[in-house]
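User: Sequence in, structure out. Go.
Assistant: Echoing your sequence, followed by the C-alpha cells.
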Amino acid sequence: MAEYVDDEAVADEAARCPVPALFLHGSEDPRPADGARSLAGIVPHARFTSVAGAGHLPWVEHPDVVHREIVDFLSAKP
C-alpha cells in the first residue's frame, strides 16, 4: 500500500536540504519536467538542467552532455 505524501511537507523538507543537487531531465522525456524543475527551485543549492534531445535516459542517450553537466555542477563555487 502506497503511503500518502503531503506535498507541503515534502517542500518543507526539500527547502532544508543542505546537500547540493543536480536535476537532469531529457527534453524529450514523455514525463513532464515540472516536478523536477519545481523541486530544484525549492532545494537551496540545486540546479535543473534540461538535456536537449534526450528522452527518459539522458545518461544513456547523451552521456557526454550528462558528464559535462555533472563536472560543471561539481566544479561550481557555492
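User: And one key feature?
Assistant: Helices lie at 7-15, 34-42, 58-61, 63-75.
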